[in-house]
Automatic annotation (TrEMBL):
Catalytic activity entry: GTP + AH2 + S-adenosyl-L-methionine = (8S)-3',8-cyclo-7,8-dihydroguanosine 5'-triphosphate + 5'-deoxyadenosine + L-methionine + A + H(+)
Pfam families for this protein: Mob_synth_C, Radical_SAM
SMART domains: Elp3
Domain of life according to the entry: Bacteria
PANTHER family: MOLYBDENUM COFACTOR BIOSYNTHESIS PROTEIN 1, MOLYBDOPTERIN COFACTOR SYNTHESIS PROTEIN A
Gene: moaA
GO BP annotation list: Mo-molybdopterin cofactor biosynthetic process
PROSITE patterns with a match to the protein in the record: MOAA_NIFB_PQQE, RADICAL_SAM
Catalytic activity, EC: 4.1.99.22
Name listed for the protein in its UniProt record: GTP 3',8-cyclase
Ranges where the Radical SAM core domain occurs: 4-216
Lineage: Bacteria, Bacillati, Bacillota, Clostridia, Lachnospirales
Uppermost EC category: lyase
Record's keyword terms, sorted: 4Fe-4S, GTP-binding, Iron, Iron-sulfur, Lyase, Metal-binding, Molybdenum cofactor biosynthesis, Nucleotide-binding, S-adenosyl-L-methionine
InterPro entries: Aldolase_TIM, Elp3/MiaA/NifB-like_rSAM, MoaA, MoaA-like, MoaA_NifB_PqqE_Fe-S-bd_CS, MoaA_twitch, MoCo_biosynth_MoaA/MoaC, rSAM
Amino acid sequence: MRDLWNREIDYIRISVTDRCNLRCVYCMPEEGIESISHDRILTFDEIARICRVMAQSGLKKIKLTGGEPLIRRGIVSLVRQLKEVPGIEQVTLTTNGILLEEMADDLVSSGIDAVTVSLDTLDRERFRQMTRRDELPRVLEGIRAMRRHPQIPLKINCLLQEPEKDLLAVADLARTQPIHVRFIEVMPIGYGRQMKFVKEERLRELLMKHYGTLTPCGDVLGNGPAVYFSLEGFQGKIGFISAVSHKFCNSCNRVRLTSDGFLKTCLQYDTGVRLKEPMQAGCSDEELASLIAQAIREKPVGHEFDKKGLVAGEEVRTMSQIGG
């Protein structure tokens, strides 16, 4: 699958639900959002069918996200289902970690290839303020549960935001444990527009001040655009995903599938195609493949997050509605 800019698309991020058991300040309001009705959510068979059709054209990697994917009943069976799709090389998961302790063993037995936990602070009160829930102990237990399966790569995603001491504390997890910690610049989408964020360069300065030289490494430790560095004495790597200050659109290899079946070709724009309705109407696999191919061909050349104000055709939904 290639777009008009000759980028090969082999990776899809699938939101299995728009529901979440946190209320993060950069994602949704305190009262939450109106959830999509059950009959509008993609079924597991519909998700598997889309992946099977795309795999026939080169899809190789799948990331399951949400909302919070572990609250979707039967998520472990979906992992098994997707692992059986010919051509799919990896099925991974991003979670907030609250339900990870009780589900870690089942996820591993289902064949999950890697797990990423979103964690922005190790301070319990700050966590409660940011997520509006007092769930940090459960998240840490979930991380410990996955550490009991060292064959499954474990990463931490942390948003680059103040206070900086929180960022250093999360980075230290990569020093004391074989966990890769990636820092992500806040993108101006939804409630993220209101956030004051720290740029990659600032954290790099802080890390070198505390830990020494950041040495670039060419390791490919995931399916996304993270750039990794090693630090002396660290068991894991430090990565940066900096869509705002270090634009990487020219190497973008992914599309997103929302929980209600919209194949979204760029995070910033509302471009893409609806897939649930054609499937419900009885379209053939060939027709489904044609819809997908046309949407991918027209994938935008890149985002314009650095521009002030709204951009023509810009996405107006929040991240919880789009999918992580």
